[in-house]
Amino acid sequence: MNDVFTSIKRTPYQSLASFLILFFTLFMTIFFFTLISFLHGVLTYIEAKPQVTVYFKTDVEEEEITKIKETVMSSDKASEVKYVSKSEALALYRKLNKDNPLLLEMVSSDILPASLEIYAKKPAFLTEIAEFLKKQPEVDEVDFQKSIVDKLLSLTAVVRAITLGIFIFLLIITFVVLMTITAFKIALKKEELELLRLLGATGWYVKKPFLAEGIFFGFFAATLAHIVFYGIIFATKGIVGGYLIGLGSVPFYTIPMLTLHVWPPNIPFIIFSYVLIVLFGVAVGLIGNLLATGKYIK
After folding, report:
1. CATH code at position 81
2. Is 0.90 topped by the overall pTM?
3. How far apart are CA 51 and CA 130, in angstroms?
């Protein structure tokens, strides 16, 4: 570590440039990583909801709803059809509005419709099921979420493509800057390095301080990027949360034995993202300096 601090003192501006380019790259990496994880989580959340929900007129008898349910199931296009009675709808309404007594007083089970929650076996069946239900005289409204899922899939694909392009560009710039700055530092220590080689020092011994510096910068740049990013997240949590009312917790990719929530971010996900970004930061710093020392130190 003494060699690292000595190198930083000798070339403070170049060291600052290395740190800042690493910080910016890692900050953007964690930003896009979280964004894509969030979109994937929202998509999973929506797909876990009923794909077609049909609301019936309030005067429709349960027997008539049961017939429609059996017809949908017998079509072999639905994997599951769940009946939600008026009393169940009222219980759900009370749960969602438990913090607003005024809304609870205004609603009773008589004015809430019974409904069917339908999951299709294939996305292609969604339109057919929805069109069939719309033609039934007992039906008041059909909530069809296929368009939402399709738009979210398209958005996720676009964001993923843009992220990959930006990530590759930043990574190339980072490696170029790190190699250039490391080459400059090697040039400044040229006589000292040549003396070490004359005294019998191995190539690895000569390269080690530069590699240690890359690891050091990668670790602290990743740590600072993570702190700044989540500082911004928690500072704007109230504003962002206002746009996500009703969404609930957005899970991370399904990982056995772990409960990771992208939004609102829980402690396990924050720790998980920190470990990932630190490993990535250390790898970038190490590889960048390894390429430079491999090229300029023979």
Report:
1. 3.30.70.3040
2. no
3. 10
